[in-house]
């Protein structure tokens, strides 16, 4: 399991091999007495069966067939966890601990590579966002993995010099990756941890002050993150602001506000959608598609919305590059592809995850649940292999019923 988790940021082949080995060993080690029905794990199985059923009504059968293979872990991983002896509480803690150590090494690797590239190119962009980890690996995905690794150290009672150094390193990389959503969630989770685990009122005030100061320092001194927040704020305070980062001397590019994204019928090819405006536009065209095609109950079929998004791009006269964008919202993505039932199932899944984390009073589990709920609002996280494996492995690990039973026994 640990190998599956730590190969997620590597080339797809490595993670595919480790996932295949995990599934193969699970099948070979199957013993009838270990099999049990896990209520929490029935939901992802139901989601995959709905994906399979969407072949009956999909508007793009080749895309649906291809996506079914990619989404196979949504079915197989929960089955693997149900047919074998559950992980013990000690094993789970070891997995999370070694997971944290592994991502410290990843953080060192990314920073080391960025320094080397900066020496060669003198281009500071190698330290920020996709430049730090490559667009294929994806800054938002790596930020997610790093945040969980950070809290694997934060929950340790005895914070040695190594642990404190690891926390500082991981926090630095999280900021450099410049994901606005995750930067906010990261701050909220830190605040929640300190408020819950530090009862002394003075300590609370001091820690809140330090966190606030840290956020100010982050925004002021990490230019890339600062620029990304500034674009969001400035573009929504005033229309027709110029995006100076991507404008050229002979062609100005204008930022689209949230209001324009929602109401404008035809855009110009030199209009740019900042993060929030893009997601508002995607929600808007989702509504337009639902009203026009009456697929509220069934959706278009698994991974069958690409051509519809392209049609809307042409209708609203967006730049051709926006053909490549999905809905950037996992809830909407499932609704558009699998209908209202798909939407209800994914909402049920994240709520089960959060409920079990709160019941177990496990801050790592809670952090994972909050990360996924927020990330699903801004990313179609399960549209990529890395997102599928990361979410499904940890969802299954954290939500096995043995975890709840052991917690009660300990108490």
Give the helix/strand layout.
Blueprint: H1 2-6, H2 12-28, H3 39-53, H4 61-70, H5 73-83, H6 89-121, H7 129-133, H8 139-154, H9 161-176, H10 180-197, H11 201-221, H12 223-237, E1 254-255, H13 258-263, E2 271-272, H14 275-293, H15 306-315, H16 330-360, H17 363-378, H18 385-399, H19 401-410
Parallel strand pairs: 1-2
Radius of gyration: 22 Å
Biggest pleated sheet: 2 strands, parallel
Strand order of the largest sheet: 1-2
What share of residues are in beta strands?
under 5%
* Separation, N- and C-terminal Cα atoms: 27 Å
Shape call: globular
Please provide the ordered H/E string of secondary-structure elements. Answer: HHHHHHHHHHHHEHEHHHHHH
Q: Treating each run of at least 4 consecutive H or I residues as one helix, how many helices?
A: 19
> Spans of 5+ residues with little confidence (pLDDT < 50)?
407-411
Number of strands: 2
* Helix coverage percent: over 70%
- Average predicted local confidence, pLDDT: 86
SS-based class: mainly alpha
